[in-house]
Prior knowledge:
One of its GO terms (cellular component) is mitochondrion. The structure is a single chain. By secondary structure, the protein is α/β, with parallel strands linked by helices. The protein folds into two domains: 3-119 and 255-293, NIF3 (NGG1p interacting factor 3)-like (Udp-n-acetylmuramoylalanyl-d-glutamate--2,6- Diaminopimelate Ligase, Chain: A, domain 1); 121-254, NIF3 (NGG1p interacting factor 3)-like (Udp-n-acetylmuramoylalanyl-d-glutamate--2,6- Diaminopimelate Ligase, Chain: A, domain 1, 3-Layer(aba) Sandwich). It has helices spanning 3-9, 15-27, 65-74, 98-109, 118-122, 127-132, 169-179, 215-218, 233-241, 256-274; strands at residues 41-44, 56-60, 78-81, 112-115, 138-144, 156-168, 187-189, 203-213, 225-230, 245-248, 290-293. Strands 5-6-8-9-10-7 form a six-stranded mixed beta sheet. A five-stranded mixed beta sheet has the order 1-4-3-2-11, sandwiched between helices. The longest helix has 19 residues, at 256-274.
Amino acid sequence: xxxSAMSSSATQASPFTRAVIRAVRKLYxxxxxDKSFDNTGLLLExxxxxxxxxxxxxxxxxxxxxxxxxxxxxxxxxxxTYHPIIFRALKSITLGNSQQSTLLRxxxxxxxxxxxxxxxxxxxxxxxxxxxxxLVHDRSSITxxxxxxPGFNGAGYGRIVRFQAPLLLxxxxxxxxxxxxxxxxxxIAVPQTIQPKHKPLIKIxxxxxxxxxxxxxxxxxxxxxxxxxxxxxxxxLAAIEQGKCVITTFHSNTEREFLKRKxxxxxxAELKSMAKEEDAKEFGLGGDFQIAVSEVDKDPFEFVMRxxxxxxxxx
Length: 315
């Protein structure tokens, strides 16, 4: 390779990385993200190191040290992290900060980082619609996006779903657990006047849905049930005092299963479609590629039941 070619390749990410970013942007346009607080897009553009990495991408909810270790061991070209690892302005990048250290290690390896975050939430057929798909109902966005790009009509943040006939709270909670994979339980709050045996029989006609932390979006909604990753203690109390029910699963448990069931196959399909285009080789799509979901990514909290082995010592 000539010196000029080496210099050129070092000023941009790898062809496959650029292909993946193009595919993610097509599925979840950055213009759908809530820029009032979010930090989406290409967060780390690592210089291309020809022959060093594979044509593979790793999907994760959180970019932790463990996920970075996984990507480096796998020799992935890019990490697509749902939550932005860079959320607020950085005044320095040092090895003393664990997140900054992760970014430095990835840059050294040539691995780029992209985050779509709330663009995935807002997109029709995206994360929030997927959560709403567990039930047959009419739905609408809590906060619609007024100027969505062509083909993304109906985009917006959060969903309100209304049933033609009420469903039982016990039925809804069972469907949520089935959708979200191997959860050991849910956190459920109901008005304190309801007797334990009657809780699963509460009739629900409407649900407000928000992945992650839903307090700012769900508070004050005229619905029977709030379904989200997490609410504060006082937000949950306020809801049940108003006669509502609440289901939470811990923040990222509302998000992680979506990567396996929807985002991974959608990205694979989009890249296969791109591979048929005239400029496919320019984007490193001339051969095989892989889109994988992190095996180590998980919510920092877990449900611990009283009978769980290993958590309680025999006395």
